[in-house]
Design a protein that fits this description.
The structure is a homodimer. By secondary structure, the first copy, chain A, is mainly alpha-helical. In chain A, about 75% of the residues lie in helices and about 0% in strands. Chain A contains ten helices and no strands. The interface between A and B is large, with 48 and 46 residues. The first copy, chain A, binds a DNA duplex through α1 and α3.
DNA sequence: CCTCTTTCTGAACACACTGTTGTATAAAGT
DNA sequence: ACTTTATACAACAGTGTGTTCAGAAAGAGG
């Protein structure tokens, strides 16, 4: 790709990241971005339809990276135990990636909100639940449709990310992965320290 | 309150609800709203600063109703069992209210997204966790900070609502309350039909 | 019913940002 | 060196915003 294109898009991206530290996406104009990026306003429109499409493309890029990592770890586990052990490093890896992209991640969650990002993650979960759940698990009768569980898993996943961002990303990816597993396996009350139905 | 004010605000609200069936909030203009509402554009600004403040106020109203219902059911339960039984009707009641307000609810979740709505719900959960958890539960060591659990509970709650809307609100409030409890107590995997650590 | 007050209307205004276009220039690719 | 392509500059019409003001309409209160 033309070096000028690479440079321009990089400057647009940096301009947005910089502006987002000052104000919300909604009130940022194309003019703001191009001023900050030191490019002509018309040039912006050579690359993106509008500021919303720009953000969508950033989201798409990030999600593709995440998905790529997630798919690397896909494997057939024939027992629950193997399943748990093979998933943990995948989650850790994903959180490492998110840590590298924290500015963009924060912006995407704040602006595009839960749903667009969550929808993508949900679909990935649906795929994984359909194709990558150990045989022993899928012998169980599902109490709820798989779409609901995927929705729920993605909401949980994003909640952990949200918590991470709100607490200034102090936790390590390993700690986060642990949190995800705890809640996924034990449920909120279980993670709270209360085992279900034991008293 | 002046009948004209009541009438105007009602027409603005209906206009928005009507327009949202055709296009997203972002592309709806004040002009669109006032045309549909058959009022002067200037009149809109006598009531709201802009379209965003308008939506915030709608959200505020809905949330206050929800909170009011939730608080009605607050009581001191000294056992886990009493706690579970006293909470269930509260959740059912909340879902009934949400069913009545389904158009607005759908718009708020689609537009304002997860976060603003979730933040309010989260804070309510924090309050309830702090003040309304049976004594026996709070004897347990908390594995995670209460803010995280409140965040998570609110995400779960909204996920159920999301699922409800996506499936055209076919489920009854009672079924939804059951789902919430299932996941809250058993966790996603447990609700999936897999008991944790049993194999 | 009458009066006073509030709200709404209609029209106009400056303003900001948008998205596009045409020409010129600079920088890349080959 | 030559061709292609990206960007700059500047101008344009268009759309929506938020505000203002005089006048009309409707409600509130006696």
């Amino acid at each position: 790709m033309d070096r000028r294109v690479v440079k321009t898009r990089k400057e647009i991206r940096n301009a947005l990241l910089s502006l987002m530290e000052e104000k919300d996406f909604e009130v940022i104009t194309v003019l703001d971005i191009t001023k900050r990026a030191n490019i002509n306003r018309g040039t912006f429109y050579l690359h993106y339809v509008d500021k919303y499409e720009m953000l969508e493309k950033y989201e798409q890029e990030l999600f593709e990276k995440l998905e790529h990592v997630a798919m690397e770890y896909l494997q057939d586990d024939d027992t629950m135990d193997k399943f748990l052990h093979s998933r943990y490093p995948a989650i850790v890896h994903v959180f490492h990636l998110l840590q590298e992209e924290q500015e963009l991640l924060t912006i995407l969650l704040k602006t595009r909100g839960f749903f667009s990002f969550q929808d993508r993650i949900k679909n990935t979960f649906i795929y994984m639940f359909r194709n990558n759940i150990p045989f022993k698990v899928s012998e169980h009768p599902f109490l709820y449709p798989i779409e609901f569980l995927a929705l729920f898993a993605s909401a949980m996943f994003i909640s952990v990310i949200q918590y991470w961002i709100q607490s200034d990303m102090k936790q390590t990816p390993e700690q986060l992965a642990q949190m995800v597993w705890d809640i996924f396996l034990k449920g909120p009350m279980g993670a709270f320290g209360v085992l279900p139905f034991t008293e």
